[in-house]
Amino acid sequence: MLRRRWRFVGNRTNGKAGNADASKPLLSDDKIKTAQAFVSPSSLAKEQSTVNINPGHTTQESRSSSSLDIYTEHFGLTERPFTLLPDPDFLFWSDAHSRAYTMLEYGILTRAPITLITGEVGTGKTTLLHHLLKSVDDKVRIGMISNAHGDRGELLRWVLMSLDQPAPAEATYVDLFAAFQTFLIDEYANGHRVILIFDEAQNLSAESLEELRMFTNINSNKDELLQLVLVGQPELREIIRRPDMRQFAQRVSSSFHLTAMDRLTVRKYVGHRLEVAGAERNLFGPAATDKVYEATGGVPRLVNQLCDLAMVYAFTRDRKRVSWNLVQQVLDDGAFFASGMPAEESGSLS
To answer: What's the domain range around 206?
Structure first.
C-alpha cells in the first residue's frame, strides 16, 4: 500500500428533540463562566495549538484538557464531534468523497503526471489529503505545500524546502533547478517516487503552473520522476481550462470535483461524527439536521460550525438532544456567520 515520509511547507488558513424555551435566558448563572471560557482568547489559542504537521493528529490529553470541550461530559462524549480542523479520525466516506479519493489514489498509483482535485471551501479536500498522507509507504517522498506564492524561482525554493533539500539564498535559479533535477534522478535510482502536493493551488499564478508543468518534463525514458497533485477551489479548474494553459491541461490524467452533501448525506454525516466522538445515540433529530442542511447547503465545514454552536446552545439549556428550535435559535441570534445566506449560496462556500 501507499506509509508516510513527507514534509509540510507553507501557510495554513488553515474528518438520534425537545423544544427550547425562547423565554428563558440562553446562559443560566451557573454556566456563564463556562460559556465565557468557551470563547476566551486563551481557549482559542489552545485550540489552535493543536495544529500539527502530523495530519489531523492531536493527543487525547490536549483534546480533553481544552476548555472548548465544555459540553462533552454533558452529552457523554469523549471529545468534541464538530471541530473545524481537518481530522482523518472523523473522515466520513460519502459517495462523493469515496470517488474523489479513488481518483486521487488512482492518479498516484498510475504515476499520472498531474492529478487535480477541486471543490468549494470546506468540502473536505484537505482531510482527504491527510488521509492519503497516512497511507503512503517509505518508497514515496512527498512534499506538501500550502498557499505557495511568489515569482519565478521562489516556487522552486518552496519545492526544495518541502522535500528537505537545501535552497541557499545566494543560489541562482539554474543552480536550484540543477539540484532539484539531481535529487529526482537520485530518488528514482534508489527506487523512490517523488510527489508534490499543492493545497490551495488556486493561489498559484498561470506562470507558476507553467513552471510546475516544466518540472514534470524531467523524466527517465518512459517513467515519470515527479508527480503533481493539485488541490484547490473551483477557480483552479477554470484557470487550467484557459486556452493558454492547454499544455498543462493535457498533462492532467486524473481529476475530480467535490460537491456539497445532499440532505440525506448530512444526516449520515452528523450521526457519523457523533458516533466517532462517543455518542451512544444520535443527538440531533431529523428535523434539526434538515435545518442544518438548509442553512449550510451541505458544506461539511459549515455543518460542523453550526452543529457545534447548536450543541453549545443545548448544553446551556440542559438539553440532551438538539432540536429544530435550537438550531433555529442559533440562526436567529446571528451566532452562525453564514446563517443569513440562502442554501443555494451557502452550498457554494467552503
So the answer is: 95-258
